[in-house]
Design goal:
Blueprint (H helix, E strand, L loop, with lengths): L1 E3 L2 E7 L3 H13 L10 H11 L9 E9 H7 L5 E5 L14 E3 L6 H23 L4 H4 L8 E9 H11 L6 H17 L1 H4 L2
Length: 197
């Protein structure tokens, strides 16, 4: 059994997203002539302030999350996105000889020992099923929710703002908050006008 930390990687963002958003937005107002080499960030800030968020849908970001499967069960509920997730049906975790898991935050020493004991049992059962000839799609039934998984998500900027508003809120699950705060910070480094809080 191996535990790993959750992580986030920005794989792709629409190049020149500010300019694309400005070009689309200015079409609505027939103000294309007001665009300049430096006007796009200010235009984007202005449309966000006015609530004209539909033009943000022209730009997208693709993000790879390494997290537990429970987090992905929440994430895929956002329907305006594309998802590609590591498949427990086809991936054979027995070939690595151990299962990787994401440790939940805030466990006491006792709780962590109980959690690790359960993982060892799940790992043992999975490896025994695989060794006895069970295909991964059957053996997966004993895998824990905290199984480390990878999921790639592509969504437009407006949908990312929606996801962040829900999944970084204080009432959101701590593990989804962790990866969504990371994703928002990384996107804000590239496009602060859109993603900075």
């Amino acid at each position: 059994m191996k535990t790993v930390k959750p992580s986030v990687e920005i794989m792709h963002v629409t190049p020149y997203a500010y300019r694309l958003i400005e070009a689309a937005g200015r079409t609505c107002y027939k103000s294309e002539g007001k665009a300049s080499a430096e006007s796009a960030p200010a235009f984007c800030a202005s449309i966000i302030k006015r609530g004209h968020l539909s033009v943000l849908e022209h730009a997208t970001a693709t993000v790879r999350f390494i997290c537990d499967r429970g987090v992905t069960h929440e994430l895929v509920r956002h329907r305006l996105a594309a998802y590609s997730q590591e498949s427990t049906r086809y991936c054979n975790y027995g070939t690595a000889g151990e299962i990787m898991a994401i440790e939940p935050p805030g466990l006491s020493e006792y709780q962590r020992s109980v959690w690790l004991g359960a993982l060892v049992q799940a790992e043992r059962a999975y490896l025994l099923l695989i060794a006895s000839g069970a295909p991964p799609q059957i053996a997966r039934s004993v895998l824990p929710t905290c199984l480390k998984t990878e999921i790639v998500v592509t969504a437009n900027f407006r949908e990312w703002l929606h996801i962040f508003s829900l999944r970084t809120a204080p009432q959101a699950h701590p593990q989804i908050q962790e990866v969504m705060n990371q994703a928002r910070r990384l996107l804000a480094e590239q496009y602060p006008v859109i993603f900075a809080k």
